[in-house]
Amino acid sequence: MFPLTVENKHVAQLLLSTGTCPRCIFRFCGVDFHAPYKLPYKELLRELQKFLEAEEDESVSEVPNPPPKRIRLQEPEDQIDGMDSLSQNGEGKLSVTEDGSSSSKNSNLNVCNVCLGILQDFCEKEFIKKVCQKVEASGFEFTNLVLSVSFPPQLSVREHAAWLLVKQEMGKQSLSLGRNDIVQLKEAYKWITHPLFSEELGVPIDGKSLFEVSVVFAHPETVEDCHFLRAICPDCFKPAKNKQSVFTRMAVMKALNKIKEEDFCKQFPCPPNSPKAVCTVLEIECAHGAVFVAGRYNKYSRNLPQTPWIIDGERKLESSVEELISDHLLKVFKAESFNFSSSGREDVDVRTLGNGRPFAIELVNPHRVHFTSQEIKELQQVNHFMTWKLSCFCNSVTELELLIVFLFLILQKINNSSNKIQVRDLQLVTREAIGHMKEGEEEKTKTYSALIWTNKAIQRKDIEFLDDIKDLNIDQKTPLRVLHRRPLAVRTRIIHSMETRYVDEHHFRLYLKTQAGTYIKEFVHGDFGRTKPNIGSLMDVTADILELDVESVDVDWPPALDD
What we know:
The protein has 563 residues and is of the alpha+beta class. It contains 18 helices and 17 strands.
């Protein structure tokens, strides 16, 4: 059933004669159901011409269609603002004759003067197949997708001009058409293309999908259509750091909402001129939302930095904690890059023991996030009992459960690849959940053990008084060793408790529970008086630290997992 009615005939004839395509005519006539837009373009044009050529009494079907929901009656006395200026002749004015026809010479429709070919060439199966070929060649694995399209901002200007044209003609019939009554171009485009993409790729279109296919259109021929708006509404077009042009869609829409109708018509033709060429496709890009993996790591080496140690462009050590963990994840998820973060950091010569240090890795643009039972079996690097147990488990599980098992096997592979670190509690998390790792970081506590050397000979009784000190406030000026990367400041930290164990006349063990962010080495040796008080000043000796271990990081994230 053809969607237009006799009431639409005048507007449809006007738009077609001025160079507007059938699908845009549907939009301006308020056709808000999908089926008519999905018909092949040539069939639509043929049906529209047949509808317009028919006599009015023959154009009404046996079961008449209801008037489009988006068109509403208007009282005759409620005239449209700016109507007088729209009906005048001259540059930028409408040139519509008494019978409703246009003086435009575009009666033989080519490129649509409103959508610039978006709802013509770029809705057909041939174009959809080209996009899908790009998607399939991208190397991403996906089970659904979201389609994102970016249209040239001048389309908004052209739609505004066509709206003013239709608005005037409908006003003559005591009808009104608001800007919001027009079916949005992007909506119509998605109605047409979503089923075609889904059919061609064999997966559903899902607005919540992490896999995005974006298509960016441009139209160089009409790029200056927006420029007059900047002269009239300069406040709407302010340069932005991340934008190549000030003529963004948001800026153009803001200006169109602000400009008076008569001023618009003095600057831009209503109806808009027909272009010579359709839009071009600037780019077709595929991207997958980041995957976030969290866990805890233990570091057993005193010769391993947390992150790559590079000074003046020269690498000092061959590996790091983040590389030993992330290399396996990057390979399995086929991610382009990663971002590593943790709850604090230890020096290269400091071990992290106990329940480990919380960390999170953002895997950027992963090309795969789905794994099969067979792939899990191939990855298994554990004992025969675990291999048998997981093989049985993988016979009937959900995709999420498979991914959890896969992460467990990655954890095993990380732990088997190096004796310098061990990882536990490896799990998928959300971006928001990572915030828990950083929340109230300075209010958290950490426990350390240190081997202390003193220049003077000491007895057991010389260190016992340290056990009785509770909640000691110390002032720490930014240590000299980190001054090149940290701002100069004095930070107050709390030593909550200390416990000592005598070793010999020049050595003792010191166990500390401190506020997170405390520089332990500086608390021991004083950093040339930059940390006050310190162990040396408290004992009236010269003290230094020989070994330091992190015994616990008291952050209850990520959740511990059962073995």
